[in-house]
Amino acid sequence: MEKIGVLNRLRKNMVIIMKVYNSTARPIVDSVLEGYNGTIFAYGQTGTGKTFSMVGDREKKELRGIIPNAFDHIFSYIGRGGPDKKYLVRVSYLEIYNETIKDLLKPKSGKLEIKESTEIGLYVKDLSNFVVKDVQEMDRLMTVGNKNRSTGETQMNAHSSRSHSIFTITIEASEVDSDGQEHIRAGKLHLVDLAGSERQTKTGATGDRLKEATKINLSLSALGNVISALVDRKSSHIPYRDSKLTRLLQDSLGGNAKTVMIATLSPASYNYDESLSTLRYANRTKNIKNKPKVNEDPKIIINNIYFFFCL
Question: Residue 168 and residue 38: Cα distance in Å, rounded?
């Protein structure tokens, strides 16, 4: 009976996880495959399951989170493409730790800086990008990045994320129309795992953990200020520059991306205040109005810069 009970629980977990993916992430990933920009991020108190929602247990199919399911989704779609369609998929992975940007795929590259140009907008200078041809290559890079990510133990979570991370998938598609003209679409998907909001009295943070918590809370506060400014519309100035996080998410909040926020809550009454704060945060976020558009330019010949691959 115990084996049957375990199997039923696994099936139930798988159903719940796929329901979450299908209702939140799938429409965003579909849009990215069509050439839109998309962002999925989890927000909530530390220890409430943000990383589990985004990543899950990648070794167990029934417990895999949004990110590994997105990997399967993307390459399943590409695999169904015809011979007239060619794709290039690239990934990058960074973290923001104590307001410093670090390349998780090349951790020895040092501190990275945010730059801006009229041609491509915001970008992180010297951030590595890797071409991937299948789910396994993408998953391997995520594993490498996760090993380099900053984590630490607090009273709320034995393996607490001490940084914000952004795993970015860029999908460029080339298709020739009936007139023989080549069309290039480029969609970008940001998969964001935010560090948790914290109260020192509950986490027991001291020393480096306290310093990290202070930086985390300041960046999350900056994110809240951006959300409030976008919703209230009382000023034309949106304080994106107040933190590295809000700067990097500028297109995702009030920009041209399709964005989903997943709010994670604690079931414990002890965390009532934090859960209420998260719900209020989510309620304000849903009132942000973005202006998504397809990134398409038939004049761009990406073949001269990168190679495409067909599956």
Answer: 10
- Residue 7 has a pLDDT of 36
Please, what is the angle between helix 66-79 and helix 135-147, to 10°?
160
Distance (Å, whole) CA 160 – CA 154: 7
Kindly tell me the burial class for residue 197, based on how many C-beta atoms sit within 10 Å of its own C-beta (0-12, 13-18, 19 or more).
buried
Specify the DSSP element, H or E, that contains 41: strand 37-44
Quick one: how far is CA 212 from the chain centroid?
21
Tell me what pLDDT residue 15 has.
62
Residue 159: burial class (beta carbons within 10 Å; 0-12, 13-18, 19+): exposed
Q: How many residues does the chain have?
A: 311
pLDDT tens per residue, range 159-190: 456 789 999 999 999 988 777 788 889 999 99
User: What is each CA distance from 234 to 224, 239, 262, 271, 290, in whole angstroms?
Assistant: 15, 13, 26, 32, 17
Structure confidence at residue 68 (pLDDT): 92
What's this model's pTM, rounded to 2 decimal places?
0.84
What are the two backbone dihedrals, phi and then psi, of residue 257, each rounded to the nearest 5 degrees?
Answer: -100, 155
User: Cβ distance 186 to 295 under 8 Å?
Assistant: yes
* Rounded (10°) angle between helices 272-285 and 207-232: 40
pLDDT reading at 278 higher than 50: yes
pLDDT for res 206: 59
Alpha carbon 30 to its chain centroid, in Å, reads 15
- Residue 310: strand, helix, or coil: coil
∠ CA 44-65-292, nearest 5°, is 70
* Number of CB atoms found within 10 A of residue 239's CB: 14
Q: So what's the architecture of 2-304 in CATH?
A: 3-Layer(aba) Sandwich (3.40)
Give SS3 for 109. Answer: helix
